[in-house]
């Protein structure tokens, strides 16, 4: 398939459930850490180089054809917080439904059978990219873009920011997205010789903490 498949996977309108999640920015807004465009940019940059890098590495490895069950275990090890593991698998179930309808493949069917309660979302995205004939780097790009565009879009609603400012923010992060996607794809290349330990395991303790706190809220606008 053409690169149009990459645009489809990265499109916020792809029915994979991402629009219902804020990527941690709702809790960050509540704590006052994100309160304007400048602080939102800092939040997105930090998320990109930690959680975003780790998720992109997993997606790239899945797109490269590495064992998705081993990658799912590796994703668990890189997601120590129960609330965020649950979110990742919930998003994985939603992505799986959309991916099986859009890019049907044996790989997606096998993973759905082995993980009926949901695999981690980046792995499903990576398998969908592979089914669409895309590369590991393509899967990494779709993942890093989602990791910053989701919080940026959510913050527009939470803070009534100007959408043009949010778009400008994403444009300013383009070189960082390039670097992170490239690093993730290069790590995926090393899995053949080094195993899953070659994949990034960058973490953000603050995102973990506020993720657990957000899960306990009784009233919230976003699911995470």
Summarize the structure.
The protein has helices at residues 4-10, 25-30, 37-63, 68-77, 82-102, 106-114, 121-131, 136-159, 163-172, 174-189, 191-194, 205-215.
Give a verbal description of the structure.
- By secondary structure, the protein is mainly alpha-helical.
- Helix content is 70%, strand content 0%.
- It is built from 12 helices and no strands.
- Helix 3 packs antiparallel against helix 8 and helix 8 (136-159) packs antiparallel against helix 10 (174-189).
- The chain is globular.
- The N and C termini lie far apart (33 Å).
- The mean pLDDT is 94.
Provide the descriptors you would attach to this structure in a database record.
mainly alpha, 224 residues, 12 helices
Topology:
Layout: H1 4-10, H2 25-30, H3 37-63, H4 68-77, H5 82-102, H6 106-114, H7 121-131, H8 136-159, H9 163-172, H10 174-189, H11 191-194, H12 205-215
Number of H- or I-type helical stretches: 12
Alpha-carbon Rg, integer: 16 Å
Major sheet summary line: none
The gross shape turns out to be: globular
**Separation of the first and last Cα atoms:** 33 Å
């Amino acid at each position: 398939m053409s690169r149009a498949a990459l645009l489809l996977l990265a499109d916020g309108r792809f029915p994979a459930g991402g629009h219902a999640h804020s990527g941690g920015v709702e809790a960050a807004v509540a704590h006052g850490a994100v309160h304007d465009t400048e602080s939102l940019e800092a939040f997105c940059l930090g998320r990109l180089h930690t959680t975003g890098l780790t998720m992109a590495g997993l997606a790239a490895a899945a797109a490269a054809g590495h064992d998705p069950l081993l990658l799912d275990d590796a994703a668990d090890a890189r997601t120590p917080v129960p609330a965020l593991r649950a979110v990742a698998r919930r998003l994985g179930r939603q992505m799986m439904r959309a991916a099986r309808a859009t890019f049907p493949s044996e790989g997606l069917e096998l993973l759905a059978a082995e993980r009926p309660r949901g695999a981690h979302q980046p792995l499903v995205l990576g398998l969908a990219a592979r089914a669409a004939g895309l590369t590991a780097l393509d899967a990494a790009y779709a993942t890093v873009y989602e990791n910053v565009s989701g919080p940026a879009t959510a913050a527009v609603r939470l803070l009534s920011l100007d959408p043009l400012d949010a778009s400008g923010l994403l444009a300013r992060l383009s070189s960082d997205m390039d670097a992170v996607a490239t690093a993730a794809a290069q790590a995926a290349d090393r899995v053949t010789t080094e195993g899953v330990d070659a994949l990034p395991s960058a973490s953000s303790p603050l995102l973990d903490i506020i993720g657990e706190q957000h899960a306990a809220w009784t009233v919230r606008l976003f699911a995470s």
